[in-house]
Write a structure and sequence with these properties.
Largest interface: A-B, 30 and 30 residues
Structural class of chain A: alpha/beta
Oligomer: heterodimer
Shape of chain A: globular
Helix content of chain B: under 10%
CATH topology of chain A: Peroxisomal Thiolase, Chain A, domain 1
Strand order of the largest sheet of chain A: 3-2-4-7-1-8-11-10-9
Order of helices and strands of chain A: EHEHHEHEHHHHEEEHEHEHHHHEE
Radius of gyration of chain B: 16 Å
Distance between the termini of chain A: 16 Å
Number of helices of chain A: 14
Number of domains of chain A: 1
Largest sheet of chain A: 9 strands, mixed
Strand content of chain B: 35-45%
Amino acid sequence: MVLVIGAAQTPFNRRKDGTSFRDWAGDAFDAALAMSGIGRCDIDALIVASESDFFTLQLNPASVLVQDLGLTGVQTLRVEGGGATGQVAVHAGVERILSGRARHVAVLGVDPSASALAGDSIRELYGYSFDFWTDGLSGVTSTSLYALSWQAFAAQHGGTSADLDAVTMKNRGNAMLNPNAHLPRHHEVGEFTASPMIASPYCRLHCSPLSDGAAALILSSAQAAPDARRKTAPEINGIGSASDLPGLGHRKNPGHFEAKSLAAKRAMAMAEISASDIAVAEVYDAYAGAEVQAIAALGLSDNPLNALRSGDFAQSGRCPVNLSGGLIGQGAPVGATGVAQTASCALMLEGRYHKGLQPERPLGHALADTHGGIGTSCAVTTLRAGASA
Amino acid sequence: MKRQVSLDYSLSAGWLAPWLEGLRVGKAVASLCSACNEAQFPPLRFCPTCRQHSDGWRKLDGHADVLFRTKGTDGDIAMVRFDGANSACIACIEALPIGATRCVLTTSTDEPPIPTLIVEPET
């Protein structure tokens, strides 16, 4: 059994305060460690999630971060999985505990995705997240590819631009109660028609921002957890990952995130639960339509568009999705994103999430979903509330 | 603080060379799986249907159907399926009128050839 005994993140935003990714990493780790009830000397391994050395200008970032965190001597591993980097790192940490190679693992996600490079440079680098030879060199950016995938989904399921607006309004509205959020906003319907078109039907308001920030988890085997944390800390009871063909055109259904479905099935099989057991979810909404596509792929609804329109995924709905604001509202420092999703789920299950966003009803299970590419490298994590939470 | 890094890559096409050479001269060359007779454009090293190693190349006639298209800061981008191919690909669609659904591959003028398909309306 793997417990989340510490979970924290920094604000996600565009930093203009002279701090660097090494400062944010330290802040997130220190906060998670303080919550965990263990000391630095108890940490056996550090898993670092950072998508690209082009962002940090630091190859082997774990080598300097382990030093900055006062952990020199522990096992280190740097993980990269495109947009899924953070969640893949969570899985690596869980597996290290389950294998018996570590009792306590620090998972640290960090990326300076906003302030280190110009936006166009970051977007070019993101373009290389897809098959470099068939898409990356062409200059096609992620927004165009996501737009084509959404169109394929919408052609099958009847999605409209109003649905994209609704996802943005929901997530940025949630973000207004999240002090760590990059884009807390109340949007009016009329704003979307005035927003610049990036790749039809996606206007700028339908896109997640480039953010700076860090997030950290302290994972522990149940046996090694401090008594006080063992009673209430949530458990990561399922991890699942899967891959798809990178090229949308090679997929039988370019609107369906098949690898995400596979990853979710694997995670839920490990947890011995079904999608109907999920009470709250943080899903990968790099673009507004991707949230709906993710909900469909994860099996959180048989008819995600009707459910969205009925408010099932709103704060007061049947299964709130992206209470944090998601990538669209909270922001997206890539390596930190998946770690922060799992941290949010853990804090919600333990009743420690932000005031105004913490669900009032008891929660049984939560799900965190992250992907790289266009649903190409998918990683899904399920969590169960602690016994005394 | 400012730091500029300039990187000058030398890239080798490897097994994708027939496809890239095709793009250079405006020919659509797909990978072929002789086991199930499926052609992939862009090419795949393994057939996604039967998981056999692709073992040949097939020249397509260069005509394609537009499946989906998007317009924005990247320009006009479409998912198209070439006649004779079992998969679709992402392509730039310069000069394709709104509503047009058929297009044809043209020569890539970029050097090295950019593996992007520039398609134009059929004449």
